[in-house]
Amino acid sequence: MLSTGALRAHLLAARLAGPVATSREDSLRSYRAFAARDPRVLIGLDPEWTWGQRDLIGLMADKCGVSADPRHVSGHDVIDPELTLTALDAFADRLGAVAERNGPVLLGTGHPHRLLGFYAALADALSAAGCAVLTPAHGRCIDITTRFGLRTYNLAYVRGVALVRDPGPERPGCEPGAHTHSPLPVRTVLGAAAEAGGGLPELVIGDHGWVCGAGQLGFEAIGLADTDDPALFVGEAEGSVSVAVPLDDAVRSDYYRPLTRYVLNRACLSQ
Fold it and tell me: Entry's InterPro entries (predicted)?
């Protein structure tokens, strides 16, 4: 089993924690937008409390380890690896709990080019443990507003993990899906599952709008989030998100493999 010390060293070496690539400027911009309730940053969450920028800086300092000084306005953000490790333990505990009762699960990502392998390994392990990995609304068209205007995507599943991709046939060598923060995919999936009268997930696992959108609808949701994604941490603080793991969500995909081994071992799941 990968030790806590070895994983801590990996988090720092891979810049998953410690000084990360996300800039302080980007994070502060997100906090200002969240305070203004910009839906592009709320990503499906409807906060119960009033969150000003200073409130968010304080929350993110507590949850991620970023600087609590509002006068710190530039440079790289910093994630405390101890907070990442603690959150990974909680994340793994939720995986273990749903596996123990063979509960149905839904996995989805807005970062398929980086995090698909991480979630796919979890899907494989949960399926092997007897959990139904749900795949409703496969092939459904979804219109998502982007900075380039309204775009139509297709909902797809790769190794049990939901994502959106551009319409048309899959082309060899292309990314497995598109980057998105939108909660519309998870709303579409959960709505389709309810309409079909089939099983609904006992746990939703993912990032961005997959977690916030599901949590806002009352589903237990856990996921990964960077320092410029305050919505997941606000959701955790308010109780609509069960676990938000602070880490850089855009490093090389193979850098997440030690995290996969760690959480599956702690959850007593085979990979």
Answer: Phosphatase_SCO2771
